[in-house]
């Protein structure tokens, strides 16, 4: 209750279950790992100012650990554990068909999705090269999970685009300029952050990777404001996917990205069931998946 009662801007990401049995490990310079629930996941050994602020408030509730360990512990809880333990809330696959995690960071969600597809392939797309390198290590550390890493920039055209970065070694990479994105009427850039162009990439369409697949169990998309373009470039993918979860927490140039995604899905003839948190939930059959009306 004490963690749940913290202000939103400093609360840990997850309000759900916390690990009882786990161990930290490290075998790569600059990386820290956590082993729990039958998986081993590496992440960057770092802590943001937000991590440090939250850690001070909850440190006495936790087993002994450093702030860097707290960051990966908390991320594992929110990005892996909750997904596995609450699959209907987080729209995990429920059929034995391939799945996709577009914008997968270092692979937490892709490894969670792999628990539900009975050996079918999970395609894990990541834009940033540093994240992609750690993603590959995590796949190697979990050989029973049939996850395929793909370094690609997904959009609705095959063109050269700049990779915009707010913070290195985080999820904060996009094909959109971060100053154009807002959350709750506040720019995503703070005084100590900046938008830097860190790479130039040739974009692909999501359909390029799925045209040989008959059906998909679940597609999750979270690409920091570029979701409408990824959906537009994946219209054939969406048509054969049981459930789609498209994260849309931002405004882009003062338009809700969520509205742009719903508009695109509706134009494609894909049924939109509603929203769950900041994500649009759509597909062929809602079943027990959580979604509330827009």
Describe this structure in words.
The protein is α/β, with parallel strands linked by helices. The protein is 26% helix and 28% strand. It is built from eight helices and 18 strands. The chain has a seven-stranded mixed beta sheet, with helices on both faces. A hairpin with a 7-residue loop joins strand 8 and strand 9. Helix 2 (67-85) runs parallel beside helix 3. The protein is globular. The two termini are 29 Å apart. 44% of the residues are buried.
Fraction of residues in helices? Answer: 25-40%
- Characterize the largest beta sheet: strand count, sense, and whether it forms a barrel: 7 strands, mixed
Q: What is the straight-line distance between the termini?
A: 29 Å
Structural class: alpha/beta
The strand order across the widest sheet is 6-5-4-13-14-18-17
Overall mean pLDDT score? 89
Helix count equals 8
Question: What integer value in Å does the Rg equal?
Answer: 18 Å
Shape: globular
Strand content: 25-35%
Total strands: 18
Q: Can you lay out the helices and strands and say which pair or pack?
A:
Elements: E1 23-25, E2 31-36, E3 39-44, H1 49-58, H2 67-85, E4 99-102, H3 108-114, E5 122-126, H4 129-141, E6 147-151, E7 153-154, E8 160-165, E9 173-174, E10 181-183, E11 186-187, E12 196-204, H5 207-210, E13 216-221, H6 227-232, H7 235-239, E14 241-247, E15 251-252, E16 255-256, H8 257-268, E17 271-276, E18 279-283
Parallel strand pairs: 4-5, 4-13, 5-6, 7-12, 13-14
Antiparallel strand pairs: 1-2, 2-3, 8-9, 8-12, 10-11, 10-15, 14-18, 15-16, 17-18
């Amino acid at each position: 209750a004490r963690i749940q009662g913290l202000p939103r801007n400093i609360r840990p990401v997850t309000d759900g279950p916390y690990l009882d049995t786990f161990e930290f490990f490290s075998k790569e310079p600059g990386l820290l790992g956590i082993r729990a629930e039958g998986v081993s996941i590496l992440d960057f050994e770092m802590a943001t100012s937000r991590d440090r602020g939250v850690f001070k408030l909850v440190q006495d509730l936790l087993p002994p650990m450093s702030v860097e360990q707290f960051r990966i512990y908390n991320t594992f809880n929110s990005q892996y554990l909750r997904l596995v333990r609450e699959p209907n809330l987080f729209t995990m696959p429920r059929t034995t068909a391939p799945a996709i995690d577009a914008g997968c960071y270092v692979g937490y969600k892709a490894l969670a999705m792999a628990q539900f597809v009975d050996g079918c392939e999970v395609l894990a797309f990541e834009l940033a090269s540093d994240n992609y390198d750690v993603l590959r290590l995590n796949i190697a550390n979990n050989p029973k999970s049939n996850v395929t890493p793909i370094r690609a920039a997904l959009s609705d055209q095959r063109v050269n685009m700049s990779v915009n970065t707010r913070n290195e070694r985080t999820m904060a990479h996009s094909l959109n300029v971060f100053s154009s994105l807002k959350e709750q009427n506040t720019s995503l850039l703070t005084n100590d952050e900046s938008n830097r162009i860190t790479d130039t990439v040739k974009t692909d369409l999501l359909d390029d990777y799925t045209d040989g697949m008959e059906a998909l169990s679940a597609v999750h998309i979270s690409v920091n404001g570029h979701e409408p373009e990824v959906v537009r470039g994946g219209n054939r993918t969406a048509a054969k996917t049981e459930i789609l979860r498209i994260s849309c927490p931002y405004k882009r140039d003062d338009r809700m990205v969520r509205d742009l995604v719903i508009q695109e899905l509706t134009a494609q003839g894909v049924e939109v069931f509603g929203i769950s948190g900041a994500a649009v939930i759509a597909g062929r059959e809602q079943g027990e998946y959580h979604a509330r009306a827009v």
